[in-house]
Amino acid sequence: LRCRLPGGIIKPYQWIEIDKFAREHTYYQSIRLTNRQTFQYHGVPKGKLQPMHRL
Questions:
Q1: 18-52 confidence digits (pLDDT tens)
Q2: CA Rg, the chain, in Å?
């Protein structure tokens, strides 16, 4: 699941919440940074895709 990050800028408190979300909702409990100025969650169960898109 790839998320949008306008301008590639993120504040520390946002990063903490993104990390917390990854730990709670993905198999690998990690975030991957991309060269597209955004980040990706890997290992998201299919049942959690719909709720994640609402965020």
A1: 888 888 888 888 888 888 888 888 888 887 777 66
A2: 11
8 A C-beta contact, residue 44 and residue 23: no
Token pair for 20: 């917390």
| 30 neighbors 18 (Cβ within 8 angstroms) | no
Count: domains in the chain? 1
| Separation of alpha carbons 31 and 39, rounded Å | 7
Structural domain range at position 31 = 2-54
Tell me which residue has tokens 């903490």: 16
